[in-house]
Amino acid sequence: MTDQLIAYHEARARGGVGCIVVQVAGVHETARYTSHVLMATSDECVPGYRDLAAAVHPFGTVLLGQLFHPGREVMESSDGSAPVAVAPSAVPTERFRVMPRALGLEEIEEIVAGYGAAATRLVRAGLDGVEVVASHGYLPAQFLSSHANRRDDDYGGSRENRRRFLDEVMDAVRAGAGPAAAVGLRISLDEHDPAGLDIEEATDAVAALAARGALDYVSVTTGTSATLGGSDHIAPDMGFANGYVAPAAARLRARIDVPILVAGRINQPQEAERIIASGQADACVMTRALICDPEMPRRAVAGELDEIRACVGCNQACIGHFHQGHAISCIQRPETGRERRYGAVVRSPAPRRVLVVGGGPAGLKAAAVAAARGHEVRLYEASRRVGGQVLLAEQLPGRDEFGGVADNLRREAQRAGVEIVTGQRVDVDLVERDDPDVVVVATGAQPYTPPVERRGSPRVVDAWSVVRDLESAPTGHVLVADSRGDWTGLGVARLLARAGRRVTLAVTGYAAGDRLQQYVRDGQLVALEREGVVTRALLRLGGVDEDTAYLESVLTGNPVLVADVNGVVVAAGGTPDSALAEALRKRDRAPIVVGDCRAPRTVEEAVLDGLVAASDL
């Protein structure tokens, strides 16, 4: 329980969150599914949880802790060696390709006792209750499933036997937590896996627990960690409808008489209010929405709905960071995860006049933070609308919600008092006339086109131009050459396919979109297949003539020809637009350079650059 984690939750409690359910804590040594999981297997965890409770309780926030065992769903070990996983039976997991060993009866007894002991520790530390995680194909769900549980003893076979483990766990937790603490259950009512836990079996198991008073509430979610398709529902991206799990919660609510919580792409208070008012659930669970805006509850109460920074479901810095073993953050709000350093705005003791050149994500964030710190800030943007490359990204299929990033950053800057001037290109003379104390250059990037041998007059255009003007793209059969593995190549391929082109997407990586977070990439790969895009992996573009694209294997260099091609669209990222920064240096005006003109990366790094630069002014 690090200070960083406590600071994260304290910020959300301060923002008005009514109930915090802390991330999972392992209940047994075999529950270490990552190298950085919280553990509640000894009294050593109590001081950390006590500090967390002391941080959030002054704001009136209820604090619950999740009790967890992954069973066979183990991601990694602490030292990089292959992990040892346990499960009801020796049935492998498809996603992590782990073959578990079947638990013995003594081990089952130990794990059940571990749940109870962990509940005791968390309540003793001052938490208001605990939540047993039986969702997403983890150990309790594995016992319930006839596909994962092939035992022939008292814990397998009939439905009653397969429920035995969860029944014993809930009894142990209730006894360990004591009568005054809340005891809840989280469960997936649809694992979206043909070999997953049956919906009716899950519902019946919950109804049986509720009928005998074992539950104070149920938290409903969907999906499973066991498969790629099922795991996409763990943190559903912008391709999923808002609140799409609510109908499943409503079906359970009709059967049991305990409060129902529901999660699943609920990113605005209006959406949560609609779900509650319709009777589908009693409360709504938001994770990424509060990663993105910890002040959402307070702003909702105050009626400041337009001031809420809405999560766009990009999954890049939240679950994406987690899967990489890094602390979570948010591409729109890099203060998240960095609360101790950037959580509170510190007014500058010596306000200055700041000129920001470029209204993309880096410039907007730098301007907003600088103005919030008391500096007088003017921002110039050459185009008629701020947003930078976000304005291109939002035009790609399935990415329209991403435009919210630009809107949210613009509002943040306006709220802080930034003067925004659009339609004005900035040169050194303009800077000299304004004569600011500080110049922040955020001029972004221009599309990069790698050297490509051309014979004749083939159509070769960059991806950015195609997004700006679809008519600039070749007609007929188009090859999209993607060397980045990000949203651009995928999006342009889909854009062209929807416009009636026959599209071949050639990527230098192992798969299309291989730099995207898995849950996001999966949805895009499905869309590519549905829209008829042919994908070729591990190929780079070498040349093109009137009707043929000449590629080569990135591994062997062997030639690969794609015939009957009418033109090529190159998705190769950007190159820094650093002309203004260089000109200012020649005039002895050392600028602060942020975003893609510093180094072309993603929105996440651009916004973080802006935050760091302005915080240091």
Describe this structure in words.
Helix 1 packs parallel to helix 2 and helix 14 (361-372) packs parallel to helix 22. The protein has 617 residues and is of the alpha/beta class. It has three domains: 20-282, Aldolase class I (TIM Barrel); 351-447 and 576-615, Rossmann fold (3-Layer(aba) Sandwich), CATH 3.40.50.720; 453-572, FAD/NAD(P)-binding domain. The model has no long low-confidence stretch (mean pLDDT 97). Strands 2-1-3-6-7-8-9-10 form an eight-stranded parallel beta sheet. A five-stranded parallel beta sheet has the order 13-12-11-14-26, covered by helices on one side. It contains 22 helices and 26 strands. The two termini are 32 Å apart. The protein is 34% helix and 18% strand.
Major sheet strand order: 2-1-3-6-7-8-9-10
Identify the CATH class of the largest domain.
Answer: Alpha Beta
Query: What proportion strand?
Result: 15-25%
Strand count, sense and barrel status of the largest sheet are: 8 strands, parallel
If classified by CATH, what would the architecture of the largest domain be? Alpha-Beta Barrel
Mean pLDDT: 97
For the termini, the CA-CA separation is 32 Å
Helix-and-strand structural type: alpha/beta
The CATH topology of the largest domain corresponds to TIM Barrel
Map the helices and strands.
Blueprint: H1 3-14, E1 19-26, E2 38-39, H2 46-56, E3 62-68, E4 86-87, E5 101-102, H3 105-124, E6 129-134, H4 139-144, H5 159-177, E7 182-188, H6 199-211, E8 217-221, H7 228-231, H8 246-253, E9 260-262, H9 269-277, E10 283-284, H10 288-292, H11 296-301, H12 319-323, H13 339-342, E11 353-357, H14 361-372, E12 376-381, H15 390-393, H16 404-416, E13 419-422, H17 428-434, E14 438-441, E15 445-447, E16 453-454, E17 459-462, H18 463-468, E18 477-482, H19 487-498, E19 502-507, H20 518-530, E20 534-536, E21 539-544, E22 548-553, E23 559-563, E24 567-571, E25 574-576, H21 579-586, E26 592-593, H22 603-615
Parallel strand pairs: 1-2, 1-3, 3-6, 4-5, 6-7, 7-8, 8-9, 9-10, 11-12, 11-14, 12-13, 14-26, 16-21, 17-24, 18-19, 18-24, 19-20
Antiparallel strand pairs: 15-25, 21-22, 22-23
Helix pairs in contact: 1-2, 3-5, 14-16, 14-22, 19-20
